[in-house]
C-alpha cells in the first residue's frame, strides 16, 4: 500500500515538473529542422511581428495586410510558433508566415523567412 502511494505521488510530481517546464518556457530550444509547434530561433535583427488588418491579415498575411507592428524581435531571441500560413507577400523567396508568441507576450504574424529552419515550410506545424 505504501509503495503504491509513493509511486502515485512520484508520477504526479514528475507530471507537474514536466508541465511547469512548458508553462515557464524551459521546454526544448529551437527546432532547426522543423518538428512541429515549439520554439524557433530568430536569426535577424528588428523582425516585425504584425497583426491588425482584420480578416485579410489572418487569411493572407503580409506587411500591407497586417499593418500594425506589435513588437520586433532580434537574434538570438526565440518565438513560439503555433501555425503557418501562405501569405500575400514573400520575404526572401519564402511565401510563408508564422503565427508566433514572443517572450514579451505579443502575438502576431512574422515572416517565416526569419526563423531558424532549414526549409520554407516548417514540417509538423499546422496551417493557421
Structure description:
By secondary structure, the protein is α+β, with helices and mostly antiparallel strands. Helix content is 21%, strand content 33%. The chain contains two helices and six strands. The protein has helices spanning 2-23, 55-59, and strands at residues 38-41, 47-51, 68-73, 78-91, 94-101, 107-111. A four-stranded antiparallel sheet has the order 1-4-5-6, with no helix packed on it. The chain has a two-stranded antiparallel sheet with strand order 2-3. Residues 1-30 have low confidence and may be disordered.
Give the low-confidence spans: 1-30
Spatial ordering of strands, largest sheet: 1-4-5-6
Q: What characterizes the major β-sheet?
A: 4 strands, antiparallel
Number of helices: 2
How many β-strands, per DSSP?
Answer: 6
For the termini, the CA-CA separation is 49 Å
Overall mean pLDDT stands at 81
How much helicity do the residues have?
10-25%
Order of helices and strands: HEEHEEEE
Report the radius of gyration as a whole number of Å. Answer: 18 Å
What proportion of the residues form beta strands (DSSP E)? Answer: 25-35%
Shape: globular
Estimated structural class: alpha+beta
Amino acid at each position: 500500500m505504501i509503495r503504491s502511494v509513493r509511486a502515485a505521488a512520484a508520477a504526479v510530481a514528475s507530471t507537474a515538473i514536466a508541465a511547469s517546464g512548458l508553462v515557464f518556457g524551459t521546454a526544448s530550444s529551437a527546432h532547426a529542422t522543423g518538428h512541429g509547434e515549439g520554439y524557433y530561433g530568430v536569426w535577424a535583427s528588428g523582425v516585425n511581428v504584425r497583426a491588425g488588418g482584420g480578416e485579410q491579415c489572418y487569411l493572407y498575411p503580409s506587411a500591407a495586410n497586417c499593418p500594425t507592428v506589435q513588437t520586433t524581435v532580434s537574434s538570438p531571441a526565440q518565438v513560439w510558433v503555433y501555425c503557418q500560413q501562405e501569405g500575400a507577400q514573400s520575404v526572401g523567396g519564402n511565401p510563408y508566415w508564422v503565427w508566433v508568441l514572443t517572450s514579451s507576450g505579443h502575438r502576431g504574424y512574422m515572416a517565416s523567412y526569419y526563423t531558424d529552419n532549414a526549409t520554407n515550410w516548417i514540417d509538423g506545424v499546422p496551417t493557421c
